[in-house]
């Protein structure tokens, strides 16, 4: 195979983001068809590809080698399992699914079909995060002791899609906060052992929009996560994807959309500065924002062409879902949740 032919499932913001990434930020692949959602015909026309009326008709196409699933999380399992059975490789938007059982079923279906499964965790491809990971793995800050993650969005009820409010999609910790959960696992190289958390549901809304959690990880690491998608304007500066990492020999201040700073030997060193995103002229499809999506989608293409496992696995997706669901359970029961027991 010299070129991967892609079908996109979902025509909302993320569906368009992937269409843009494959068209202008990757090599070795092209989108051939789009299905799913009211905007699918328009999106297909915009990118000069075929519109398919149903998922089934898209999966029947012999010229579709792989699919990107960018739909509400409550239908991920159904769609991903169907794609696997049709022999299509899968790039699955986060979160993987809404239950641990669904995550396992997706993984099993892909393994049985012999298709690649990659989870879309773009924070692993933001350059500040990549440089931070290099510093940690090189031992420059010593052994990690603590990680504090902050993910704050302003006025989420007005900017998120309406389906995010539905109870079957559970909430924004699952829908968006899994990025931060995955970053904790990825940076530390450790699994979460237990969580204690509290979640808040806006009045009249069936889904969670604000959660705070404390976590205990393997290797004697502590972590915390503040995930609030309904913060009043103007919000806090540099708080969309912020992390502090405390090591035994040094510290990191990570802003995934800003600066990466290393604190060591009593002084700060600026290691990386991201170019600002021009929201006015270029908007959400600014090359600065699209960089991580292009690099992520290129990894998916490369894994298929090179017949190897993608860098981000189905297990990574399942672990992030597991932690988010454990936070919800902790909030409901007002208790500490041990992940080994919770996952069974």
- Strand order, biggest sheet? 14-13-12-11-7-10-9-8-15
Summarize the biggest pleated sheet. 9 strands, mixed
Mean pLDDT equals 94
Class computed from helices, strands and strand pairing: alpha/beta
CATH superfamily name of the largest domain? Answer: Dihydrodipicolinate Reductase, domain 2
Write a structural description.
The chain is α/β, with parallel strands linked by helices. The chain folds into two domains: 4-122 and 293-312, Rossmann fold (3-Layer(aba) Sandwich), CATH 3.40.50.720; 124-281 and 321-342, Dihydrodipicolinate Reductase, domain 2, CATH 3.30.360. 36% of the residues lie in helices and 27% in strands. The protein contains eleven helices and 15 strands. The protein has a nine-stranded mixed sheet with strand order 14-13-12-11-7-10-9-8-15. Helix 2 links the parallel strand 2 (29-35) and strand 3 (50-51). Helix 4 packs parallel to helix 5 (100-113) and helix 8 (172-188) packs across helix 10.
How are the SSEs ordered, and which strands pair?
Elements (H helix, E strand, L loop, with lengths): L3 E6 L3 H12 L4 E7 L4 H7 L3 E2 L3 H5 L6 E4 L6 H10 L3 E5 L6 H14 L3 E4 L6 H11 L6 E11 L1 H4 L12 H17 L3 E9 L9 E8 L3 E11 L10 E6 L3 E5 L3 E6 L2 E7 L13 H19 L8 H20 L3 E2 H4 L2
Parallel strand pairs: 1-2, 1-4, 2-3, 4-5, 5-6, 7-10
Antiparallel strand pairs: 7-11, 8-9, 8-15, 9-10, 11-12, 12-13, 13-14
């Amino acid at each position: 195979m010299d070129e991967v032919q892609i079908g996109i499932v979902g025509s909302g913001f993320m569906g368009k983001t992937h269409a843009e990434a494959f068209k202008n930020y990757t090599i070795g692949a092209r989108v051939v068809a789009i299905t799913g959602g009211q905007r699918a015909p328009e999106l297909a026309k915009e990118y000069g590809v075929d519109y398919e009326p149903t998922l089934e008709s898209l999966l029947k196409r012999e010229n579709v080698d792989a699919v990107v699933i960018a739909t509400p999380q409550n239908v991920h399992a159904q769609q991903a399992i169907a794609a696997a059975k049709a022999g299509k490789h899968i790039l699955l938007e986060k979160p993987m699914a809404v239950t641990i059982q669904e995550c396992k079923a997706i993984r099993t279906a892909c393994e049985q079909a012999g298709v690649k499964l990659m989870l879309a965790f773009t924070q692993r491809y933001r350059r500040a995060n990549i440089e931070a990971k290099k510093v940690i793995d090189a031992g420059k800050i010593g052994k990690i002791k603590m990680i504090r993650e902050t993910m704050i969005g302003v006025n989420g009820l007005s900017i998120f899609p309406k389906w995010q409010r539905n109870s079957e999609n559970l909430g924004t910790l699952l829908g968006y906060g899994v990025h931060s959960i995955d970053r904790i696992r990825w940076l530390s190289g450790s699994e979460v052992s237990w969580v204690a958390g509290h979640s808040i549901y806006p009045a009249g809304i069936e889904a969670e929009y604000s959660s705070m959690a404390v976590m205990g990880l393997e290797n004697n690491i502590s972590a915390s996560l503040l995930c609030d998608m309904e913060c009043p304007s103007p919000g806090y500066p540099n708080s969309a994807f912020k992390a502090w990492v405390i090591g035994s020999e040094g510290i990191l201040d990570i802003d995934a959309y800003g600066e990466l700073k290393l604190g060591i030997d009593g002084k700060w060193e600026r290691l990386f500065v991201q170019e600002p995103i021009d929201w006015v002229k270029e908007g959400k499809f600014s090359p600065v924002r699209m960089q991580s999506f292009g690099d992520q989608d290129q990894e998916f293409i490369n894994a298929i062409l090179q017949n190897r496992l993608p860098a981000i696995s189905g297990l990574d997706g399942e672990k992030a879902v597991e932690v988010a669901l454990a936070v919800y359970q902790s909030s409901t029961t007002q208790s500490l949740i041990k992940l080994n027991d919770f996952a069974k």
